[in-house]
Amino acid sequence: SIPLGFFGGIGGASKRGILVKGSNFLEALNDVEIVVFDKTGTLTKGIFTVTQIQETAEIPSEKIIEYAALAESYSTHPIAKSILKSYGKDVDQSLLKDYKEIAGHGISVKVDGIALLVGNRKLMETEKIKYKDVKATGTVVHVAVDKNHIGYIVIADQIKDDSKDAIVGLKSIGIKKTIMLTGDNNAIASEISTHLGLDKYYAELLPHEKVERLEEINQGKSRKGKMIFVGDGINDAPVLARADVGVAMGGLGSDAAIEAADIVIMNDEPSKLVTAIKIAKRTRKIVW
Ligand code: ADP
Ligand code: MG
């Protein structure tokens, strides 16, 4: 049977907007040693804005954003949302054929027989597109038409106001390691990691590489220690499932993540994790 104190703990958490799906997860929070975060939508707001549209001599910026918006029109990725917002017009989806969203890379689609590629460095490299390397502070979205690079868009996200409190709070209650995993580029990951004082980060990861890293990180804890993964659910359901305790952001998060998670933070504030661990510690004192 479940000791009564757990109901108090779960109830107390739910009053603070933290949904705990079972007493075993609340109990596990007592032994957390490592907290692994996803970046986009978890430590950052997950709301990008377009900061630059880089045109070339032949192709004006209006055309570049139009191609990008066409390609992104079926995607629910935060990157796609920002590009569609910046474009600001309706997209004629009837023109689109052979649409493919490639996780951790971007989009491949045909428009009126033209082959469009919209995505990151990895996408350009796998498709053997020649382009000049770009140094920009932001996420760079390259645009290629019929295998020719025609320009790029730079988009920027913001760190959540609450993220610093979360990291400081976790340290103050004795969490040994805070780590970030991201599919985004190294420059951004490094900047965020320094700003927040994370112990480590891994960038430019594909979804399956996030799972591999998580398993590696998991080797670094003690026998009874637990590892938490906190994500927003876009492409991270497999990582959520692999952690001892999977925590999802409920606001921006996808239904799949909320389903896969053991704990859901309703208002998307990562510092709620500190609150949850404190509740778990109080609950253990009452129960045992
Ligand atoms: P994160 O780890 O930050 O949550 P994702 O795994 O969702 O990021 O994506 C990793 C990277 O793959 C993005 O930073 C972007 O460069 C590229 N990417 C993913 N989806 C798209 C898309 N719809 N359009 C353009 N680029 C994308
Ligand atoms: Mg993500």
From TrEMBL:
It is found in: Cell membrane. Belongs to the cation transport ATPase (P-type) (TC 3.A.3) family. Type IB subfamily. This is Cadmium-translocating P-type ATPase. The lineage of its organism: Bacteria, Bacillati, Bacillota, Clostridia, Eubacteriales.
